[in-house]
Specification:
The complex is a heterodimer of chains A (about 325) and B (about 325).
Chain A: H1 3-23, H2 30-62, H3 74-89, H4 91-96, H5 99-121, H6 129-153, H7 156-166, H8 178-193, H9 196-202, H10 206-211, H11 216-238, H12 244-256, H13 261-286, H14 293-311
Chain B: H1 2-17, H2 25-29, H3 33-68, H4 80-94, H5 100-124, H6 132-154, H7 158-165, H8 183-192, H9 194-200, H10 204-209, H11 214-235, H12 242-254, H13 258-283, H14 291-314
Helix pairs in contact in B: 1-3, 1-13, 3-8, 3-11, 3-12, 3-13, 4-5, 4-6, 4-11, 5-11, 8-11, 12-13, 12-14
Main location (chain B): membrane
GO molecular function (chain B): transmembrane transporter activity
Family (chain B): Belongs to the binding-protein-dependent transport system permease family. FecCD subfamily.
């Protein structure tokens, strides 16, 4: 099978899952069901694309296949920023503030933070990948602890006002963000498309990329900003799903066996959509909501991660 | 040592007199019934459980680091805590009305099995990078705890589980903490075995050559670690990174002689938890912040510092 046919097969799978999700098992008011389901589908497609794209780009930049933005704690940074805003300005400002404005402010902070983190962590030479990974994971825990710490410092009454605004899931999404999120993701993906050839070269490593005439520093910094924006969008929409990016990116690499990012990116996005829509179908219709999707994704992803870590250590 | 001890006494006394119910020394001397009751029912149990939990978790970390010869292994970074939580959940589901002793037994069995599995994985990994091992351990813990969440969600036990996720001393009153006394004899055993742990840490071959039954020593160590962790998780909750940072900081200044360092580690662990607890009680007085969060923030911060620092020495 050539890569094109593989992608076509994948898109057919994704489309048919979406159709099954939309049109089967309809009981009650059709208009209402269709509306709420298509909102869910939109959110899943958007987050799937955002997570897949950000992970593939991040892994190309850092040149390894086990680091992902969420494993090293990018999405806990987003949570931290959200809480920090409430902590400083109080929950009334948050509820008064337009959801979109608040979202854009958080994204702004997030980008600044990502660039800072990058310059501290990845600039130093001679860092082994395990070191980065461990530091990243501990940083994730650190940010999470600081977040919950601040949440405790906030007046308990205020905290309940903001709690469900901060922790979304697929059953409790922030639909009011869908439009802005869609626009942002479309812009970012458009921007990525213009960088696809650079990405192919970047996957050869820093030295080769520079040799081949890629303006390394500038490109990496810009791509990292794109990653930060995409992570913020997906976290804002549905909350953190730690291992989704890891799973879809690695499955895409093994499935497509190519270095070309035009295929890899599309493939990973389609896998993400399949995983999310399929997973949500299973959760809703088989488990009848008895377990959240993120728990299943993290369980499978964690085992897969450990497996890759132990088995294929020599590969990187 | 002396300075540490004085600090410890000061903090312990302070801990007794901080709280919503005001107690002054003068009242106490006159033995006012109310105040004495507050002391006996709440303050003293709290103080004792802080001391025991802090000291025993730090010792656990020290033992694990000695046995695995890796400075970054601890109950938090080897999945022991997560396994103990899974065990508690299982005992909640299977034996709903179980007493604390049964719960702690099941938790212990899970924690022991989990730590054994982790140690086996370590033996399988031939090339031992100091950084790689805690990474595997944390991942292992993540998998276990997502299994816990899965079942907890299914049986509507998320709330009970999350109370074990963040350590909290505010629920400790007379009658609810006595289980912690179980770890006192374990600490004594640990002290008696200190020299043997040191030798076992040199590796199986050297230890056997020196006339030691390597396997049984390692097992004793793991049993102590698993039992203490389960007791602490069940009564207080998780104290993340405590077993990691305290032994590291102590051995940084006092060297690696286990028998000498062990009491110091216990003392510093108790001091650290006491200080964190007092801080958590004062900062949003009259409310309080659970100890798990304070320890989590400081603990992960110090761990990051240690990582970067050790790395620099390395390179």
């Amino acid at each position: 099978m050539s890569n094109k046919t593989k992608l076509i097969v994948l898109s057919i799978a994704a489309l048919s899952l979406i159709m099954v999700f939309l049109f089967t098992d309809v009981k009650g008011n059709w208009d209402y069901i269709f509306r709420s389901r298509s909102e869910k589908i939109a959110a899943m497609v958007l987050t799937g694309c955002a997570i897949a794209a950000s992970t593939v780009i991040f892994q190309t930049i850092t040149n390894n296949r086990i680091l992902t933005p969420s494993i090293i704690g990018f999405d806990s940074v987003y949570m931290l920023i959200q809480t920090f805003v409430v902590f400083i300005f109080g929950s009334t400002t948050l509820t008064m503030m337009n959801a979109n404005v608040q979202f854009l402010v958080s994204v702004g902070f997030m980008v600044g933070f990502a660039v800072l983190l990058y310059s501290i962590l990845f600039k130093q030479e001679e860092q082994t990948i395990y070191f980065l990974l461990l530091v990243g994971m501990i940083m994730g825990t650190f940010f999470q602890s600081v977040t919950s710490f601040m949440q405790f410092l906030i007046d308990p009454n205020e905290f309940f006002v903001i709690q469900d605004r901060m922790f979304a899931s697929f059953n409790n999404m922030k639909t009011e963000l869908l439009l802005v999120a869609g626009i942002v993701i479309a812009l970012m993906i458009g921007y990525i498309v213009s960088y696809i050839r650079y990405l192919d070269v970047l996957s050869l490593g820093k030295e080769h990329a520079i040799n081949l005439g890629v303006p390394y520093e500038k490109t990496v910094k810009r791509l990292l900003i794109v990653v930060a924006v995409l992570v913020s969008v997906s976290t804002a929409l549905v909350g953190p799903i730690t291992f989704l990016g890891f799973i879809v990116a690695n499955v895409a690499y093994t499935f497509l066996q190519t270095y070309r990012h035009s295929y890899l990116l599309v493939g990973a996005m389609l896998f993400a959509i399949v995983a999310l829509v399929g997973g949500q179908l299973v959760v809703e219709r088989v488990f009848t909501f008895s377990t959240p999707l993120t728990v299943i994704v993290n369980l499978i992803g964690g085992i897969y991660f450990l497996y890759l870590l132990l088995r294929e250590r020599k590969a990187w | 040592m002396k300075k540490l001890f004085i600090l410890f006494v000061i903090l312990a006394v302070a801990s007794l007199f901080i709280g919503v119910q005001h107690i002054s020394l003068a009242d106490l001397l006159m033995l006012k019934a109310d105040d004495v009751e507050v002391l006996i029912i709440s303050r003293i149990p709290r103080l004792i459980s802080i001391i025991i939990a802090g000291a025993s978790m730090s010792i656990c970390g020290l033992i694990m680091q000695q046995l695995s010869q890796n400075k970054f292994v601890s109950p938090t970074t080897a999945g022991t805590m997560d396994c103990a939580r899974l065990g508690i959940l299982v005992s909640l589901i299977l034996f709903a009305s179980a007493g604390p002793l049964l719960k702690v037994t099941v938790a212990f069995l899970f924690a022991f099995a989990g730590t054994m599995i982790f140690m086996r994985i370590l033996e399988k990994v031939k090339y031992k990078d100091a950084i790689f091992i805690p990474l595997v351990g944390l991942m292992f813990g993540n998998i276990i705890s997502s299994m816990t969440t899965f079942f907890a969600y299914k049986y509507n036990l998320i709330q009970s589980i999350s109370s074990w996720l963040h350590g909290d001393f505010s629920m400790i009153i007379k009658g609810r903490y006595e289980l912690l006394y179980l770890s006192v004899p374990l600490m004594i055993v640990a002290y008696m075995y200190a020299n043997r742990f040191t030798i076992a840490g040199m590796g199986e071959e050297i230890a056997t050559n020196l006339g030691l039954h390597y396997r049984s020593i390692v097992n004793v160590g793991l049993i102590i670690v698993a039992a203490t962790s389960s007791v602490v998780v069940l009564t207080v909750g998780t104290l993340p990174f405590l077993g990691l940072i305290i032994p590291n900081l102590v051995t940084l200044y006092y060297g690696d002689h286990l028998e000498k360092v062990l009491p110091l580690t216990a003392l510093s662990g108790a001091i650290f938890v006491l200080a964190c607890d007092i801080f958590g009680r004062v900062v949003i007085y009259p409310y309080e912040i659970p100890i798990g969060l304070t320890v989590g923030v400081i603990g992960s911060g110090v761990f990051l510092y240690l990582l970067v620092r050790r790395r620099k020495q390395y390179v």
